[in-house]
Write a structure and sequence with these properties.
The chain is of the alpha+beta class. Helix content is about 25%, strand content about 15%. The protein has helices at about 30-40, 80-95; strands spanning about 20, 50-55, 60-65. A 3-stranded mixed sheet has the order 1-3-2, with no helix packed on it.
């Protein structure tokens, strides 16, 4: 039987504030590996547009092959999956309850 261990909840992030570019922006080995992995395939062949990786309120990696940070895309039903995942994470961390308004 697997037991989940809950650590202290992560700090709340105020999305109304601008994000901060991390000191090692795009230089972390994982960020380099992610970009290198994309270079090894044809990103446009799979419909890749870009990504942003956050750690807390810091942008640690970012890449755009189509457009830039101000571009918007039709992502259709993906929004529901992401919203559900974030709500689940907030519930698990205790930062949201079913009675939170």
């Amino acid at each position: 039987r697997r037991m989940l261990v809950q650590s202290s909840p992560p700090p709340s992030i105020d999305l109304s504030l601008p994000l901060v570019i991390a000191a090692a922006y795009n230089a972390h080995p994982d960020a380099v590996a992610l970009s290198t992995a994309l270079d090894e395939i044809d990103p446009s062949a799979v419909g890749f547009k870009g990504y942003v990786v956050l750690k807390g309120t810091e942008v640690v990696a970012e890449r755009y092959d189509v457009g830039d940070a101000t571009s918007t895309y039709h992502i259709w039903s993906c929004t529901k999956s992401w919203a559900a995942a974030m709500i689940g994470e907030l519930l698990y961390a205790g930062n949201l309850t079913l009675s939170t308004k």
